[in-house]
Design brief:
The protein contains 27 helices and no strands. The relative contact order is 0.05. By secondary structure, it is an all-alpha fold.
Length: 550
């Protein structure tokens, strides 16, 4: 078409714009003689021209006569059946992507790309939806269009491999999200169906399936027209749709972040990790309760080495919870009104116990404590097979350890009405901390630290449990408890309130005799480090002199 415009302009001496205008009028009469791809190209170009004309005239609220006529012709000629609709939308996406890619190659700079046709395609979809008075027809049309976009994206990604260009597909999906905001925002049911379609689409487009679309995918799931609107639905209706998207992101990052530091990551993974941190910061600020109630699932898939990432999630708290200042004089944590309240957990934290056939045994032991062989059998079941350990990077079933710790804590806080620790749960924890090796104990202590969050009865339970385990254990275990707490506190803020208050009580109260432990003075570097700890966490009148509790 563009070549034809140039040829006609050269032959007649007329400007290209005038020739293009006459040809676009003529193009609608030639549809029967052109292939569907040529028809779609002409139609999208005509649609773009009509849109530009409408924008120039300053009438964006209602479609003009040319726009209505063109949409009517598209509806009558291309959408007469579902098969025709699918073929039409797929061709639109193919033509738009090819146009964007060719414009980038022609202009030279890698970042330059023309989105005229992708914009026209997204606007055409929404304009077609508005022709149907029935909401079901609108939803079905959007579902067909988004499915067609995903089909072309998948085929293009598979064919081009590392040469795949994600930007045309990202642009059309983002533009479509923006254009859908023109529908009545008060129609919650219709908007719910729209966002559900995109949520299902993004679930299929995750980085584990489409590596070349990873950055666009992260941008789309955090888009201002998707994430906030989905999480703001009444009764937390959109939470179950966004939760698996965030889980997909963490699962994809986990093998890359598992055993390395930021300095040895590839540039692409480092950029994706930084983008993930930014998304979590937005969630922590605007939707803290979402992170709070799904914290267990997120901590299960975040590598043990990603301390700051985990801290961001564990800092989340319900909007009505007040976080007391740990430095408040004579603060009595057990007297806080929030300490008697149980947190809401939407994760199925008992699923790993059920899969491993342990839940019934744990329940029986917590109630009766009659099985002598239960604890040794429990310890052995925490191990993975050699093949599973090779894949996960650990000899232990981390998800099972996390599930066991939280389940025992929840059962104990629900059964014991007083604020004392259930002796049966203490026996389980004390056995594991003494009998597990260094790796297993480290994972077990991290599972406890994952529950040191905002003020609630479980935070108080696990804080008391950890301090009690410290007081009755040998120095090897005490050193490991100190390590687990400190490594979460020496990274940049924010820090979970329960974690901070637990460590503060550990180093403050004389009953734990913390400053007399030999590991504090094991090396000059360790001694200097704990001098910094004393300066940072204790006020001047409480700070020990030369690391000896006076």
């Amino acid at each position: 078409y563009q070549r034809r415009v140039r040829d006609c302009a050269t032959a007649t001496g007329i400007q290209e714009d005038a020739v293009a205008h006459s040809l676009t009028k003529e193009s609608m009469m030639m549809m029967g003689e052109l292939s569907i791809k040529q028809q779609v190209l002409l139609m999208l170009e005509e649609w773009h021209r009509v849109q530009q004309q409408t924008n120039t005239q300053g009438n964006n609220s209602q479609p003009g006569m040319n726009e209505k006529a063109l949409i009517s012709k598209v509806q009558q000629g291309m959408l007469v059946s579902e098969d025709n609709s699918i073929r039409f939308f797929r061709t639109c996406m193919e033509v738009s992507a090819e146009y964007c890619t060719s414009s980038s190659e022609e202009k030279g700079p890698a970042l330059y790309m023309q989105y005229n046709l992708t914009d026209a395609f997204a606007k055409m979809i929404v304009s077609l939806m508005k022709l149907y008075p029935d909401p079901t027809a609108k939803v079905n049309l959007l579902k067909v269009a988004v499915g067609a976009i995903l089909h072309v994206l998948s085929r293009d990604h598979e064919a081009k491999k590392i040469k795949f260009n994600q930007r045309p597909y990202h642009h059309v999906l983002a533009k479509l999200l923006v254009e859908l905001s023109s529908f009545d925002p008060s129609n919650e049911a219709l908007n719910w169906y729209f966002l559900s379609i995109f949520s299902n689409a993004f679930a299929n487009l995750g980085p584990s399936n489409f590596l070349g679309f990873s950055f666009s995918w992260l941008d789309l799931i955090s888009h201002r027209m998707f994430m906030p609107k989905l999480l703001q639905f009444k009764s937390k209706k959109g939470w179950p749709l966004f939760h698996p998207l965030l889980m997909d992101l963490f699962r994809f990052l986990e093998p890359h972040l598992r055993s390395t530091d930021m300095y040895h990551l590839t540039e692409s993974i480092r950029a994706l990790y930084k983008g993930t941190l930014r998304v979590l910061l937005v969630l922590l600020h605007d939707f803290s309760e979402f992170l709070c109630e799904y914290h267990f699932d997120f901590c299960n898939v975040i590598p043990i080495s990603c301390i700051q990432l985990r801290n961001l999630i564990l800092c989340a708290s319900p909007p009505n919870v007040r976080l007391p200042d740990p430095y408040t004089p004579n603060l009595k944590v057990d007297l806080l009104p929030e300490i008697s309240q149980s947190p809401t957990i939407l994760s199925n934290y008992a699923s790993a116990l059920i899969r491993c056939n342990l839940k019934a045994d744990v329940d029986h032991y917590l109630k009766n404590r009659t099985s002598v062989s239960f604890l040794p059998e429990l310890k052995s079941k925490l191990h993975l097979t050699a093949a599973e350990a090779y894949v996960s990077g650990s000899r232990y079933n981390v998800e099972l350890i996390n599930s066991l710790v939280l389940y025992v804590g929840v059962q104990s806080t629900s059964q014991v009405q007083s604020k004392s620790i259930d002796p049966h749960s203490l026996e389980i924890f004390q056995y594991l901390i003494n009998e597990l090796d260094a790796e297993g104990r480290y994972l077990f202590l991290n599972a406890i630290a994952n529950q040191l969050r905002y003020p609630n009865n479980q935070t108080h339970y696990f804080s008391c449990m950890l301090l009690l385990l410290f007081s009755v254990s040998n120095e090897v275990i005490q050193e490991q408890i100190t390590r687990v707490l400190l490594e979460r506190l020496v990274v940049k803020r924010p820090h979970p309130w329960g974690l901070f208050i637990t460590f503060y009580e550990l180093i403050k109260f004389r009953e734990y005799n913390f400053w007399s432990k030999s590991f504090i003075r094991s090396t000059p570097d360790m001694e200097r480090f704990f001098e910094w700890v004393a300066t940072s966490f204790l006020s001047n009148h409480q700070k020990p002199t030369n690391l000896v509790d006076v």
